[in-house]
Predict the structure.
Amino acid sequence: MTNKMWGGRFAQGPSAIMAEINASIDFDKRLYAQDIAGSKAHAAMLAKQGIITKADATAIRKGLDEVKAEIDAGKFKFSAALEDIHMNVESRLKELIGEPAGRLHTARSRNDQVITDLRLFTRDAIDQLDAGLVDLLRALAEKAEAHAATIMPGFTHLQSAQPITFGHHMLAYVEMLSRDWGRFADARKRLNENPLGSAALAGTSFPIDRAMTTKELGFKSAMRNSLDAVSARDFLLETLAAASICAIHLSRLAEEIVIWSSAQFRFVKLSDKFTTGSSIMPQKRNPDAAELVRAKPGRILGAFMALAVVMKGLPMAYAKDMQEDKQQAFDALDNLALAIAAMAGMVRDLEPNKDILRAAANSGYATATDLADWLVQNVKMPFREAHHVTGRIVALAEKKSCLLSDLSLEEMQAIHSGITKAVFKVLTVEASVASRLSLGGTAPSNVRRESKRWKKFLKGK
Ligand code: ARG
């Protein structure tokens, strides 16, 4: 059988292999709501411009509502022979309303139709990611406020470096993920332009009103070059780039959760909701959700790469290559939304183990920098010399296997006579974090202020 829609000049139907490589209905049926919204706007515009009759437009719009209801209800029979969502919808419309259905495709092409659908879809997907990110940011800001003064070791090279607060650590992710949120907002702004009316590639001779469909579909403006409108996929690349960076950020927190929840660290306890048991090792509580979030960048960066390679070197205007823009992108956006939701759940449920965190912060001479800073400020030593003196004091504590604060004043004075008992005030981890009051520093008062600021900012979002 030749294709019902474009088969006029083809004597034979496509081979089974051709049909299989050509059909996109299995994945682009996901665009049905956007496709129908676009067609309804197009039909209304054609009628207003006198290109089709009002009666035909009314029949088309009503029929499209019926098609949508059938798909919503799962009653629609998708046909691979009809290739894609556009032709499946139109063919069913013809069955429902007859001849007027054939007038819907006036002054458009599947080339501007598909990209209208995909822009609308991506806009919706970004709106969902936006809501998910706001929820995750809230969860992090709340955890930060609750643990503004919970002390933990801060790491560089995954070696204990200086004490920080758990809240400060959470707020680092708030900052990162809020930039992701901003990147999606930027991408949304740029993609919100209307390609409909560009037709196959050159525009149309019909007196269409692009401003009207622009308004009805909620686009900001009409795209101003028909070749660009049907060929551009950078809006999706940009969205996938933002998704990739966001997934990378999530994977870093996921990795920390995996490390923190291990029996060797025990920094946090994860809830049963986001862990699984082992089938043979009863003692285990595996951080599967965190591990899966850690793995998601694989497919999400993969989707960016797949589309970038499809688009690279592609001549103007539409080419069927572009049909390959959808599957991985859908998968990436779905999986990012899932990862964000899983992370929000994990963050809400995780319980920092305060005693273990504090003990870990106290080991490894994490207040050595505080001692050096004290020598600079109170003994007026150049920092380089203070670093050296501190090194000798740390070596002594190491030899005695004790904390810096367990050394006696005499022992320290034997290394440098200028040291007084006031030094003990800076040797505790509490004093260390409390003193980090510089803008952006880890002091509990800073963390409290910043988490409140974020919570307030997120309230209206
Ligand atoms: N299924 C196609 C796609 O996803 C729709 C556009 C087809 N256009 C064409 N000229 N064959 O890109």
In short: The two ends are 53 Å apart (CA to CA). The chain has a mean pLDDT of 95.
